[in-house]
């Protein structure tokens, strides 16, 4: 993420307000006229450096501490052969693996992010990169030569626009593909993704046309794979009967999600535990009391993730404790949700092609629906993907525990909707928000990461969708804790705050 250098006097005042007055980041940002993300970044960098406040560092030393990477010098590090890098990318090798090979050969060379940046610069300009860096770093270079270099760059862009767009798409997909780490959940994308069994091992073949990135086939052996779930993003593919049996025997969940973020398949066991007393308790319990407990716990979790709303929630929580109407409870929840989402207000780090109305996030509501559904902003689209998969996981876990996932309390009964799963997801949403949005704020975004349909709904390109699913994935133990809490509510047990 790129940050503009601030005057060092302003940085020193920022540190004083942070460590002496203990002001929140947003309050500091308002007083100094900067974004709260910059306040957070500089504060963390000061702490990570091992310094304590008040500091004895001079202004020059502080400048070096915070902005030493801004100092441009002559390129003394070994530059990669970018023609060879491009050739390897065309052969399906990821940019991350190419950098690793370069780093092994040149341990003192460029870091991964700078390596990626230099490669993109080379793609756009197709100039001698070492000469260009020397021109930028040399203050004695004539102004005329710099202008000529700039004009050459512009002409290069204009003469090769079609190829640049294709390369930009390849880079975008390659970046996201490099972030796929399949430790407990495997994600697939593309038409023709398939699951079969070969020699008693599950054979996982990715789709053939998901993107310009070529994924590799995988195999899982029984008992040692450590995989909890497989998620397929896309519309076309197939799974054999013996693969379904293999997944059931190994207790591996299978979900398919379409390109607009809707859950299409949730593979649940054909024979779930028969626990009629649990179903009876669901159907005869006081649903309003359970709904009220769900809202209270949701507000507690929201306060944990966003402490700024704690004082704002006190009055709402007092009102909720005296309510006896489900309609009033839902209105109170709506007010609390609005206060909560008002705290998620930030700007996205972005490339120049990102549309203006996507560059700042400040609203969870979509104008198409008046709710979070049918997102028109990329952040909301990514949140919807995370929520959808989490609802599917909750539904599957409820079936395994012998509950009826349709017998909810807070959400209205609708045919085909697992209302109880969407009830319990309210206790886990803040955890997903914290996890996913925290990651979103560390990335740099481009227009080509997303697609927009005729209605205006935003959805994710398949490689990005794979990463979002993994970044929003929360441990199974948190889901089990929420279900245990719900079981206590059914029997009238007054449990304390859910430890999520």
Automatic annotation (TrEMBL):
Short name of any one Pfam family annotated for the protein: Cas_Cas1
A GO molecular-function descriptor: hydrolase activity
Tell me its cofactors.
Mg(2+); Mn(2+)
Query: Which InterPro entries does the UniProt record give?
Result: Cas1 (IPR050646), CRISPR-assoc_Cas1 (IPR002729), CRISPR-assoc_Cas1_C (IPR042206), HTH_IS408/IS1162_type (IPR017895)
Tell me which UniProt keywords the record has, alphabetically. Antiviral defense, DNA-binding, Endonuclease, Hydrolase, Magnesium, Manganese, Metal-binding, Nuclease
Residues binding Mn(2+), per UniProt: 333, 411, 426
Classification via PANTHER family:
CRISPR-ASSOCIATED ENDONUCLEASE CAS1 1
Official protein name in the record: CRISPR-associated endonuclease Cas1
Query: Whose protein is this, by species?
Result: Nitrosomonas ureae
């Amino acid at each position: 993420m790129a940050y503009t250098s601030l005057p060092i006097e302003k940085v020193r005042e920022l540190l004083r307000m942070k460590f002496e007055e203990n002001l929140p980041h947003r309050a500091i940002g308002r007083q100094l006229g900067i974004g709260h993300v910059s306040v957070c970044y500089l504060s963390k960098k000061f702490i990570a450096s091992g310094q304590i406040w008040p500091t004895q560092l001079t202004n020059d030393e502080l400048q070096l501490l915070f902005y030493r990477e801004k100092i441009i010098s002559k390129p003394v590090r070994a530059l990669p052969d970018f023609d060879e890098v491009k050739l390897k990318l065309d052969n399906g090798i990821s940019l991350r693996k190419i950098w690793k090979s370069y780093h092994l050969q040149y341990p003192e060379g460029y870091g991964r992010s700078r390596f990626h940046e230099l490669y993109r610069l080379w793609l756009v300009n197709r100039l001698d990169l070492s000469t260009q860096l020397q021109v930028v770093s040399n203050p004695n270079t004539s102004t005329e030569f710099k202008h000529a270099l700039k004009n050459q760059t512009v002409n290069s862009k204009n003469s090769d626009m079609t190829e640049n767009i294709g390369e930009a798409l390849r880079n975008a997909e390659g970046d996201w593909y490099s972030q796929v780490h399949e430790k407990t959940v495997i994600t697939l994308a593309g038409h023709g993704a398939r699951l079969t069994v070969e020699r008693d091992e599950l054979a996982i073949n990715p789709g053939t046309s998901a993107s310009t990135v070529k994924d590799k086939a995988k195999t899982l052996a029984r008992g040692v794979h450590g995989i909890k779930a497989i998620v397929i993003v896309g519309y076309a593919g197939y799974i054999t009967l013996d693969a379904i049996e293999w997944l059931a025997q190994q207790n591996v969940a299978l979900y398919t999600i379409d390109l607009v973020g809707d859950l299409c398949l949730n593979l649940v066991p054909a024979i779930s535990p028969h626990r009629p007393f649990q179903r009876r308790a669901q159907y005869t319990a006081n649903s309003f009391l359970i709904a009220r407990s769900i809202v209270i716990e949701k507000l507690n979790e929201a306060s944990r993730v966003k402490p700024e709303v704690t004082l704002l929630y006190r009055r709402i929580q007092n009102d909720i404790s005296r309510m006896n109407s489900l309609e009033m409870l839902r209105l109170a929840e709506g007010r609390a949700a609005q206060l909560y989402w008002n705290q998620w207000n930030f700007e996205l780090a972005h490339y120049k092609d990102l549309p203006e109305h996507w560059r700042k996030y400040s609203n969870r509501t979509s104008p198409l629906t008046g709710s979070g559904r049918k997102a028109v902003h990329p952040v909301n689209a990514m949140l919807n993907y995370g929520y959808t998969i989490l609802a599917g996981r909750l539904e599957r876990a409820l079936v395994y525990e012998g509950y009826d996932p349709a017998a909810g309390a807070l959400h209205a009964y609708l045919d085909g909707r697992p209302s109880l799963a969407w009830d319990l997801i309210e206790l886990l949403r803040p955890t997903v928000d914290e996890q996913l949005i925290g990651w979103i704020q560390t990335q740099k975004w481009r227009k080509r990461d997303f697609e927009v349909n005729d209605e205006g709904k935003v959805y994710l390109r398949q490689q990005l969708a794979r990463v979002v699913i993994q970044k929003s994935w929360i441990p199974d133990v948190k889901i089990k804790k929420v279900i245990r809490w719900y079981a206590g509510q059914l029997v009238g047990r007054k449990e304390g705050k859910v430890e999520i």
